[in-house]
Amino acid sequence: DAMVIQNPRYQVTQFGKPVTLSCSQTLNHNVMYWYQQKSSQAPKLLFHYYDKDFNNEADTPDNFQSRRPNTSFCFLDIRSPGLGDAAMYLCATSRDRVGEERETQYFGPGTRLLVL
Amino acid sequence: AQSVTQLGSHVSVSEGALVLLRCNYSSSVPPYLFWYVQYPNQGLQLLLKYTSAATLVKGINGFEAEFKKSETSFHLTKPSAHMSDAAEYFCAVKKTSYDKVIFGPGTSLSVIP
């Protein structure tokens, strides 16, 4: 089945130690998103890629970076995790074609990050 | 700016009872509206979406929602709750197809046996 995959499902890191979360998709969607979701809160969009074009949300901290080496993969890098960065990180994809409606987002299962 | 409110952060229903989760949006034009469900430690799954076609939208797992422009509402209902419906439910909106999705704060649904 076509899907959005996130690895690992649980990640433990130390305060200030860089960490990378990964997302891959078999849907061949051209748009990929990263959301941060803290406990009992709605997902918050960090940034998204439209094809290779990176679009950062205005309030996303500089501590968060992203890479998209190809259509299928997207990475979230947290350069110096703080205790406040402990959250669920959700990857999502959608298909967007010129002249057509941007389709629904499909979400991966998420990676829960714990910062010690 | 788009916004979404969900009345009731926690809703409890008995198994077999009607499920009603409320969602109101602020928008000057009919937006795109969505309901997502999130089970514990899982990603979000689309239940249904409204995109200016029929005002009554049927989704997966027996859920449906009705778009009421006069009330700026998009409430989610299910006639008979199952234990497996216990989850977090998010209403979401976007003004146009190309805008980012704005999520509501979520409603946690508990189903009592």
Describe this structure in words.
The complex is a heterodimer of chains A (116) and B (113). With 116 residues, chain A is an all-beta fold. In chain A, 0% of the residues lie in helices and 50% in strands. Chain A has no helices and eleven strands. With 113 residues, chain B is mostly beta strands. Helices cover 0% and strands 51% of the residues of chain B. Chain B has no helices and twelve strands. Chain B has strands at residues 3-5, 10-14, 19-21, 24-26, 32-38, 44-50, 56-58, 64-68, 73-78, 87-94, 102-103, 107-112. In chain B, strands 2, 5, 6, 10, 11 and 12 form a six-stranded mixed β-sheet that branches. A four-stranded antiparallel β-sheet of chain B has the order 3-9-8-7, with no helix packed on it. A two-stranded antiparallel ribbon of chain B has the order 1-4. Chain B is globular and about 40 Å long. The model of chain B has no long low-confidence stretch (mean pLDDT 91). At the A-B interface, strand 9 and strand 10 of A face strand 6 of B.
Topology:
The complex is a heterodimer of chains A (116) and B (113).
Chain A: E1 4-7, E2 10-13, E3 19-25, E4 31-37, E5 44-50, E6 53-56, E7 64-67, E8 73-78, E9 87-94, E10 106-107, E11 111-115
Parallel strand pairs in A: 2-11
Antiparallel strand pairs in A: 1-3, 3-8, 4-5, 4-9, 5-6, 7-8, 9-10, 9-11
Chain B: E1 3-5, E2 10-14, E3 19-21, E4 24-26, E5 32-38, E6 44-50, E7 56-58, E8 64-68, E9 73-78, E10 87-94, E11 102-103, E12 107-112
Parallel strand pairs in B: 2-12
Antiparallel strand pairs in B: 1-4, 3-9, 5-6, 5-10, 7-8, 8-9, 10-11, 10-12
What is the alpha-carbon Rg of chain B in Å? Answer: 13 Å
Mass-distribution shape of chain B: globular
Q: Quickly count the helices of chain B.
A: 0
- Give the number of helices of chain A: 0
- Measured as a percent range, the helix fraction of chain B is under 10%
What is the H/E order of chain B? EEEEEEEEEEEE
What is the structural class of chain B? Answer: mainly beta
